[in-house]
Amino acid sequence: MDIVLSGIRSTGKLHLGNYFGALRNFIRMQEENRCYFFIADIHSLTTHPDPKLLHDNVKNVLVDYLAAGIDPKKSVIYVQSDVRETIELYLYLNMHAYMGELAKTASFKEKARKQPENVNAGLLTYPTLMAADILIHNADKVPVGKDQEQHLEMTRKFARRFNNFYGVDYFKEPVAYNFGDDLVKIPGLDGSGKMGKSEGNAIYLSDSPKEIEKKVKKALTDAGPAAPDSVKPDYIENLFTLLRVVSTPEVVQHYEDKWNSCEIRYGDLKKQLAEDIIKVTSPIRERIVEIEKDDSYLRRVTLEGAEMARESASKTIRDVREIVGFRSF
Ligand code: TRP
Question: Is residue 221 part of a domain?
Fold first, then answer.
Protein backbone atom coordinates (compact mmCIF):
# COMPACT_ATOMS: atom_id res chain seq x y z
CA MET A 1 0.00 0.00 0.00
CA ASP A 2 1.43 3.35 -1.03
CA ILE A 3 1.74 6.28 1.31
CA VAL A 4 0.06 9.27 -0.32
CA LEU A 5 0.44 12.70 1.18
CA SER A 6 -0.93 16.09 0.35
CA GLY A 7 -0.74 19.46 2.00
CA ILE A 8 -3.67 21.75 1.64
CA ARG A 9 -3.25 25.49 1.56
CA SER A 10 -5.28 27.09 4.33
CA THR A 11 -6.55 29.98 2.31
CA GLY A 12 -10.25 29.80 2.98
CA LYS A 13 -13.26 28.11 1.51
CA LEU A 14 -13.21 25.58 -1.32
CA HIS A 15 -14.91 26.16 -4.65
CA LEU A 16 -16.19 23.89 -7.41
CA GLY A 17 -12.80 24.04 -9.12
CA ASN A 18 -11.12 22.59 -6.03
CA TYR A 19 -13.82 19.96 -5.71
CA PHE A 20 -13.71 18.65 -9.27
CA GLY A 21 -9.95 19.10 -9.29
CA ALA A 22 -7.89 17.54 -6.55
CA LEU A 23 -10.52 16.95 -3.88
CA ARG A 24 -12.57 14.34 -5.70
CA ASN A 25 -9.40 12.45 -6.53
CA PHE A 26 -8.31 12.57 -2.89
CA ILE A 27 -11.64 11.04 -1.94
CA ARG A 28 -11.04 8.18 -4.38
CA MET A 29 -7.44 7.69 -3.31
CA GLN A 30 -8.41 7.04 0.29
CA GLU A 31 -9.70 3.62 -0.67
CA GLU A 32 -6.45 2.04 -1.83
CA ASN A 33 -3.70 4.02 -0.12
CA ARG A 34 -2.48 5.13 3.24
CA CYS A 35 -3.36 8.81 2.92
CA TYR A 36 -2.14 11.75 4.93
CA PHE A 37 -3.94 15.03 4.34
CA PHE A 38 -2.92 18.03 6.35
CA ILE A 39 -3.73 21.71 6.43
CA ALA A 40 -0.56 23.69 5.87
CA ASP A 41 -1.06 26.40 8.47
CA ILE A 42 2.66 26.81 9.22
CA HIS A 43 3.30 27.64 5.59
CA SER A 44 0.66 30.36 5.89
CA LEU A 45 2.77 32.21 8.44
CA THR A 46 5.11 33.31 5.63
CA THR A 47 2.54 35.94 4.66
CA HIS A 48 1.93 37.14 8.25
CA PRO A 49 -1.81 36.46 8.49
CA ASP A 50 -3.98 37.85 11.25
CA PRO A 51 -4.24 35.09 13.93
CA LYS A 52 -8.05 35.05 13.99
CA LEU A 53 -8.19 34.89 10.20
CA LEU A 54 -5.61 32.11 10.13
CA HIS A 55 -7.65 30.03 12.56
CA ASP A 56 -10.91 30.67 10.68
CA ASN A 57 -9.30 29.64 7.41
CA VAL A 58 -7.98 26.40 8.88
CA LYS A 59 -11.46 25.66 10.17
CA ASN A 60 -13.12 26.43 6.83
CA VAL A 61 -10.79 24.16 4.93
CA LEU A 62 -11.09 21.38 7.48
CA VAL A 63 -14.90 21.58 7.46
CA ASP A 64 -15.05 21.64 3.66
CA TYR A 65 -12.79 18.61 3.31
CA LEU A 66 -14.69 16.58 5.87
CA ALA A 67 -18.03 17.57 4.36
CA ALA A 68 -16.89 16.70 0.86
CA GLY A 69 -15.87 13.19 1.87
CA ILE A 70 -12.37 13.05 3.28
CA ASP A 71 -12.98 10.38 5.85
CA PRO A 72 -11.02 10.44 9.12
CA LYS A 73 -11.68 6.70 9.46
CA LYS A 74 -9.86 6.00 6.21
CA SER A 75 -7.25 8.77 6.08
CA VAL A 76 -5.10 10.65 8.51
CA ILE A 77 -6.28 14.23 8.42
CA TYR A 78 -4.41 16.70 10.59
CA VAL A 79 -3.31 20.27 11.08
CA GLN A 80 0.37 20.80 10.24
CA SER A 81 1.13 22.84 13.37
CA ASP A 82 -0.12 20.00 15.58
CA VAL A 83 2.77 17.81 14.49
CA ARG A 84 5.87 19.51 15.82
CA GLU A 85 8.12 16.70 14.60
CA THR A 86 7.74 18.29 11.16
CA ILE A 87 9.31 21.47 12.47
CA GLU A 88 12.25 19.56 13.85
CA LEU A 89 12.87 17.77 10.57
CA TYR A 90 12.58 21.12 8.79
CA LEU A 91 15.46 22.40 10.89
CA TYR A 92 17.70 19.43 10.06
CA LEU A 93 16.88 19.68 6.35
CA ASN A 94 17.68 23.39 6.39
CA MET A 95 21.26 22.56 7.34
CA HIS A 96 21.61 20.89 3.96
CA ALA A 97 19.60 23.37 1.91
CA TYR A 98 21.62 26.08 0.26
CA MET A 99 20.87 29.79 -0.08
CA GLY A 100 21.51 29.74 -3.81
CA GLU A 101 19.11 26.94 -4.67
CA LEU A 102 16.40 28.28 -2.35
CA ALA A 103 16.68 31.80 -3.71
CA LYS A 104 16.20 30.68 -7.28
CA THR A 105 13.01 28.70 -6.62
CA ALA A 106 10.20 30.05 -8.80
CA SER A 107 7.71 30.38 -5.95
CA PHE A 108 10.23 32.32 -3.85
CA LYS A 109 11.03 34.74 -6.65
CA GLU A 110 7.35 35.32 -7.27
CA LYS A 111 6.56 35.92 -3.60
CA ALA A 112 9.58 38.22 -3.22
CA ARG A 113 8.22 40.23 -6.12
CA LYS A 114 4.70 40.30 -4.69
CA GLN A 115 5.61 41.17 -1.11
CA PRO A 116 8.94 43.05 -1.32
CA GLU A 117 8.36 44.43 2.18
CA ASN A 118 8.31 40.92 3.65
CA VAL A 119 10.94 38.68 2.11
CA ASN A 120 11.48 36.60 5.23
CA ALA A 121 13.55 33.46 5.85
CA GLY A 122 10.40 31.35 6.09
CA LEU A 123 9.57 32.29 2.54
CA LEU A 124 13.07 31.33 1.45
CA THR A 125 12.83 27.96 3.20
CA TYR A 126 9.26 27.20 2.11
CA PRO A 127 10.57 24.25 0.05
CA THR A 128 12.41 22.70 3.01
CA LEU A 129 9.28 22.87 5.14
CA MET A 130 7.36 21.20 2.34
CA ALA A 131 10.08 18.56 2.07
CA ALA A 132 9.80 17.99 5.83
CA ASP A 133 6.02 17.53 5.48
CA ILE A 134 6.58 14.82 2.92
CA LEU A 135 9.65 13.09 4.32
CA ILE A 136 8.35 12.99 7.88
CA HIS A 137 6.01 10.19 6.72
CA ASN A 138 8.32 8.91 3.99
CA ALA A 139 5.52 9.36 1.47
CA ASP A 140 5.66 7.50 -1.86
CA LYS A 141 3.32 9.70 -3.83
CA VAL A 142 2.43 13.36 -3.65
CA PRO A 143 -0.45 14.62 -5.78
CA VAL A 144 0.68 18.00 -7.02
CA GLY A 145 -0.33 20.59 -9.52
CA LYS A 146 2.10 22.14 -11.98
CA ASP A 147 2.96 24.97 -9.60
CA GLN A 148 4.25 22.51 -7.00
CA GLU A 149 6.39 20.30 -9.22
CA GLN A 150 9.57 22.24 -8.57
CA HIS A 151 9.03 21.90 -4.81
CA LEU A 152 8.67 18.16 -5.16
CA GLU A 153 11.80 18.01 -7.28
CA MET A 154 13.61 19.81 -4.45
CA THR A 155 12.18 17.35 -1.92
CA ARG A 156 13.71 14.51 -3.90
CA LYS A 157 17.00 16.36 -4.00
CA PHE A 158 16.95 16.99 -0.23
CA ALA A 159 16.14 13.33 0.44
CA ARG A 160 18.96 12.17 -1.81
CA ARG A 161 21.40 14.65 -0.29
CA PHE A 162 20.55 13.57 3.26
CA ASN A 163 21.00 9.91 2.35
CA ASN A 164 24.32 10.60 0.61
CA PHE A 165 25.69 12.84 3.30
CA TYR A 166 25.01 10.38 6.11
CA GLY A 167 25.65 7.29 4.03
CA VAL A 168 22.19 5.87 4.68
CA ASP A 169 19.30 4.73 2.57
CA TYR A 170 16.69 6.27 4.81
CA PHE A 171 14.44 8.65 2.91
CA LYS A 172 12.50 7.55 -0.13
CA GLU A 173 12.32 9.89 -3.10
CA PRO A 174 8.63 10.72 -3.43
CA VAL A 175 7.09 10.87 -6.89
CA ALA A 176 4.66 13.45 -8.16
CA TYR A 177 1.26 11.94 -8.65
CA ASN A 178 -0.41 13.52 -11.59
CA PHE A 179 -4.14 12.95 -11.97
CA GLY A 180 -3.84 13.47 -15.71
CA ASP A 181 -7.20 12.92 -17.39
CA ASP A 182 -8.99 12.65 -14.07
CA LEU A 183 -8.29 16.29 -13.40
CA VAL A 184 -11.18 18.35 -14.70
CA LYS A 185 -10.31 21.97 -15.18
CA ILE A 186 -13.22 24.09 -14.06
CA PRO A 187 -13.59 27.46 -15.74
CA GLY A 188 -14.67 30.57 -13.89
CA LEU A 189 -17.94 32.43 -14.30
CA ASP A 190 -16.34 35.67 -15.38
CA GLY A 191 -15.15 34.34 -18.73
CA SER A 192 -11.69 33.56 -17.38
CA GLY A 193 -10.18 30.14 -18.01
CA LYS A 194 -10.02 28.95 -14.43
CA MET A 195 -12.27 29.13 -11.41
CA GLY A 196 -10.42 31.17 -8.82
CA LYS A 197 -11.08 33.28 -5.83
CA SER A 198 -11.76 36.60 -7.53
CA GLU A 199 -15.16 38.13 -6.84
CA GLY A 200 -18.12 36.47 -8.54
CA ASN A 201 -15.92 34.03 -10.41
CA ALA A 202 -16.13 31.11 -8.03
CA ILE A 203 -18.98 29.02 -6.68
CA TYR A 204 -18.13 27.82 -3.20
CA LEU A 205 -19.20 24.47 -1.80
CA SER A 206 -20.79 26.42 1.04
CA ASP A 207 -22.80 28.77 -1.21
CA SER A 208 -26.57 28.67 -0.69
CA PRO A 209 -28.84 27.82 -3.65
CA LYS A 210 -29.79 31.50 -3.85
CA GLU A 211 -26.18 32.61 -4.07
CA ILE A 212 -25.48 30.00 -6.73
CA GLU A 213 -28.45 31.14 -8.81
CA LYS A 214 -27.32 34.73 -8.48
CA LYS A 215 -23.74 34.01 -9.50
CA VAL A 216 -24.71 31.87 -12.47
CA LYS A 217 -27.22 34.47 -13.62
CA LYS A 218 -24.47 37.06 -13.69
CA ALA A 219 -22.12 34.97 -15.86
CA LEU A 220 -21.05 36.69 -19.03
CA THR A 221 -23.13 35.96 -22.16
CA ASP A 222 -23.98 37.78 -25.38
CA ALA A 223 -26.71 38.20 -28.00
CA GLY A 224 -26.34 34.58 -29.13
CA PRO A 225 -24.72 32.99 -32.18
CA ALA A 226 -24.99 34.89 -35.48
CA ALA A 227 -25.05 31.79 -37.66
CA PRO A 228 -25.82 28.06 -37.22
CA ASP A 229 -23.02 25.81 -35.99
CA SER A 230 -20.82 28.70 -34.88
CA VAL A 231 -17.75 28.22 -32.78
CA LYS A 232 -18.54 29.30 -29.22
CA PRO A 233 -16.64 32.19 -27.70
CA ASP A 234 -14.65 31.20 -24.59
CA TYR A 235 -17.12 32.58 -22.06
CA ILE A 236 -19.94 30.53 -23.60
CA GLU A 237 -17.78 27.43 -23.93
CA ASN A 238 -17.03 27.82 -20.22
CA LEU A 239 -20.73 27.56 -19.37
CA PHE A 240 -20.96 24.42 -21.48
CA THR A 241 -17.90 22.99 -19.73
CA LEU A 242 -19.60 23.52 -16.38
CA LEU A 243 -22.77 21.96 -17.74
CA ARG A 244 -20.83 18.89 -18.90
CA VAL A 245 -19.47 18.45 -15.39
CA VAL A 246 -22.74 18.71 -13.46
CA SER A 247 -25.54 17.83 -15.90
CA THR A 248 -26.60 14.71 -17.78
CA PRO A 249 -25.39 14.08 -21.36
CA GLU A 250 -28.98 14.60 -22.60
CA VAL A 251 -29.15 18.04 -21.08
CA VAL A 252 -25.80 18.98 -22.57
CA GLN A 253 -26.90 17.71 -25.99
CA HIS A 254 -30.13 19.67 -25.74
CA TYR A 255 -28.25 22.95 -25.30
CA GLU A 256 -25.65 22.02 -27.92
CA ASP A 257 -28.52 21.54 -30.39
CA LYS A 258 -30.10 24.82 -29.36
CA TRP A 259 -26.78 26.57 -29.82
CA ASN A 260 -26.22 25.02 -33.23
CA SER A 261 -29.69 26.02 -34.44
CA CYS A 262 -29.34 29.54 -33.02
CA GLU A 263 -32.28 28.99 -30.70
CA ILE A 264 -30.34 29.07 -27.50
CA ARG A 265 -31.84 30.99 -24.59
CA TYR A 266 -29.14 31.72 -22.09
CA GLY A 267 -31.70 32.28 -19.35
CA ASP A 268 -32.83 28.66 -19.68
CA LEU A 269 -29.29 27.35 -19.83
CA LYS A 270 -28.31 29.26 -16.73
CA LYS A 271 -31.37 28.11 -14.85
CA GLN A 272 -30.55 24.51 -15.68
CA LEU A 273 -26.90 24.99 -14.85
CA ALA A 274 -27.64 26.56 -11.47
CA GLU A 275 -30.10 23.78 -10.67
CA ASP A 276 -27.60 21.04 -11.49
CA ILE A 277 -24.77 22.73 -9.58
CA ILE A 278 -27.08 22.96 -6.58
CA LYS A 279 -27.79 19.21 -6.92
CA VAL A 280 -24.05 18.51 -6.60
CA THR A 281 -23.27 20.98 -3.84
CA SER A 282 -26.39 20.72 -1.66
CA PRO A 283 -25.50 17.53 0.19
CA ILE A 284 -22.01 18.91 0.82
CA ARG A 285 -23.33 22.25 1.97
CA GLU A 286 -25.75 20.56 4.36
CA ARG A 287 -22.87 18.66 5.91
CA ILE A 288 -20.80 21.85 6.10
CA VAL A 289 -23.57 23.51 8.10
CA GLU A 290 -23.70 20.53 10.46
CA ILE A 291 -19.96 20.10 10.96
CA GLU A 292 -19.26 23.82 11.25
CA LYS A 293 -21.17 24.12 14.49
CA ASP A 294 -19.83 20.89 15.96
CA ASP A 295 -16.61 22.02 17.62
CA SER A 296 -16.36 18.88 19.69
CA TYR A 297 -16.35 16.78 16.50
CA LEU A 298 -13.68 19.01 14.96
CA ARG A 299 -11.62 18.79 18.12
CA ARG A 300 -11.87 15.00 18.13
CA VAL A 301 -10.96 14.70 14.45
CA THR A 302 -7.92 16.96 14.75
CA LEU A 303 -6.73 15.37 17.98
CA GLU A 304 -6.99 11.87 16.58
CA GLY A 305 -5.45 12.96 13.29
CA ALA A 306 -2.53 14.59 15.05
CA GLU A 307 -2.03 11.53 17.20
CA MET A 308 -1.87 9.21 14.19
CA ALA A 309 0.37 11.60 12.26
CA ARG A 310 2.70 11.91 15.23
CA GLU A 311 2.99 8.16 15.51
CA SER A 312 4.65 7.99 12.12
CA ALA A 313 6.43 11.35 12.51
CA SER A 314 8.02 10.58 15.86
CA LYS A 315 9.47 7.36 14.52
CA THR A 316 11.11 9.33 11.70
CA ILE A 317 12.50 11.89 14.12
CA ARG A 318 13.89 9.19 16.39
CA ASP A 319 15.72 7.64 13.44
CA VAL A 320 16.92 10.97 12.06
CA ARG A 321 18.32 12.11 15.41
CA GLU A 322 20.25 8.87 15.62
CA ILE A 323 21.50 9.29 12.04
CA VAL A 324 22.72 12.88 12.49
CA GLY A 325 24.51 11.91 15.70
CA PHE A 326 22.22 13.04 18.50
CA ARG A 327 22.70 9.94 20.59
CA SER A 328 22.05 9.30 24.23
CA PHE A 329 24.69 8.28 26.70
N1 TRP B 1 2.79 24.16 -1.13
C2 TRP B 1 1.53 23.50 -1.32
C3 TRP B 1 0.56 24.46 -2.04
O4 TRP B 1 0.80 25.65 -2.05
C5 TRP B 1 0.94 23.06 -0.02
C6 TRP B 1 1.81 22.08 0.67
C7 TRP B 1 2.53 22.27 1.81
C8 TRP B 1 2.05 20.73 0.26
N9 TRP B 1 3.19 21.14 2.13
C10 TRP B 1 2.93 20.18 1.21
C11 TRP B 1 1.61 19.96 -0.83
C12 TRP B 1 3.39 18.86 1.08
C13 TRP B 1 2.05 18.66 -0.94
C14 TRP B 1 2.95 18.13 0.00
O15 TRP B 1 -0.42 24.02 -2.58
Answer: yes
Burial class (CB in 10 A: 0-12, 13-18, 19+), 32: exposed
CB 22 less than 6 A from any atom of ligand 1:
no
CA distances, 247 to each of 111, 185, 250, 272, 319 (Å): 39, 16, 8, 8, 52
CB of 134 shorter than 6 A to ligand 1: yes
Count: domains in the chain: 2
> CA quadruple 75, 79, 85, 86: dihedral positive or negative?
positive
Tell me the CA–centroid distance for residue 9 and ligand 1, in Å.
7
Average model confidence (pLDDT) for the chain? 95
For residues 257 and 151, membership in a common domain is answered with no
With contact defined as beta carbons under 8 Å apart, do 203 and 276 qualify? no
pLDDT in tens, 258-312: 999 999 999 999 999 999 999 999 999 999 999 999 999 999 999 999 999 999 9
- Give the residue with greater pLDDT, 223 vs 196: 223
User: Using a 6 Å cutoff on CB, does residue 159 contact ligand 1?
Assistant: no
Kindly state whether residue 329 falls inside one of the protein's structural domains: no
pTM: 0.92
Nearest protein Cα to ligand 1, atom 4: 9
Q: Look up 194 and say whether it is catalytic.
A: yes
What's 281's domain CATH number? 1.10.240.10
Q: Would you say the CB of residue 273 lies under 6 angstroms from ligand 1?
A: no
- Indicate if 214 belongs to the active site: no
Task: Report CA-CA distances (Å) from 161 to 5, 85, 88, 93, 155.
Answer: 21, 20, 18, 9, 10
The one catalytic residue among 104, 109, 114, 194: 194
